[in-house]
Design goal:
Chain lengths: 111, 114
């Protein structure tokens, strides 16, 4: 069965500091991974997906199949990055989609 | 122009009661989901419907019964509510056949069982 683990429930950094939110997964198939974010009083929304290999709001994430990790990184954190971040693993192929979420990490960026 | 809307946003009720949460999406998506977020913020899938057909049914007590009258609506009915049902329930949708991993979520419905 698939599983996503985010070891840090809470993460605090100061503005301008680097930030890394950890995510590890367990899945026997070919993984498809995502980061979702929920800002205060907003809906849960997609931040980035590993196949896009893009940087969104300064965040990047690299899939490391050897370490089964998909850590989210940003070199200089901003106060507006404070939010709940979920790592998610997609399974089900193209017939239908299902996301398995980690338990989430609350990121707080202090001024 | 709300994409995925849920009602009610807040629901407080007594143990043993029956309650429903409604979800509607105006994105033209084919697939809708119910996720449960518990007190520890775990977000777990409960059900998924594609064009009114149940396609995902995780290990959920049969007190929970989803109903999809059409592909734009997915309602969740809960019988004989228990304390452990207290959670935030999220509805989500995505377009079938264009699976990109992007789910569009509603704002959530916070259910409190007393």
């Amino acid at each position: 069965a698939q599983r996503v683990t985010q070891p840090e429930k809470l993460l605090s950094v100061f503005k301008g500091a680097p930030v890394e939110l950890k995510c590890n997964y367990s899945y026997s198939g070919s993984p498809e991974l995502f980061w979702y974010v929920q800002y205060s009083r907003q809906r849960l929304q997609l931040l980035l997906r590993h196949i896009s290999r893009e940087s969104i709001k300064g965040f990047t994430a690299d899939l490391n199949k050897g370490e089964t990790s998909f850590h989210l990184k940003k070199p200089f954190a901003q106060e507006e990055d404070s939010a709940m971040y979920y790592c998610a693993l997609a399974t089900g192929g193209t017939s239908y989609g299902k996301l398995t979420f980690g338990q989430g990490t609350i990121l707080t960026v202090h001024p | 122009d709300t994409a995925v809307s849920q009602t009610p946003k807040y629901l407080v009720t007594q143990m043993g009661n029956d309650k429903s949460i409604k979800c509607e999406q105006n994105l033209g998506h084919d697939t809708m989901y119910w996720y449960k977020q518990d007190s520890k913020k775990f977000l777990k899938i409960m059900f998924s419907y594609n064009n009114k057909e149940l396609i995902i049914n995780e290990t959920v007590p049969n007190r929970f019964s989803p109903k999809s009258p059409d592909k734009a609506h997915l309602n969740l009915h809960i019988n004989s509510l228990e304390l452990g049902d207290s959670a935030v329930y999220f509805c989500a949708s995505n377009r079938q056949g264009l699976w990109t991993g992007e789910l569009f979520f509603g704002e959530g419905s916070r259910l409190t069982v007393l």
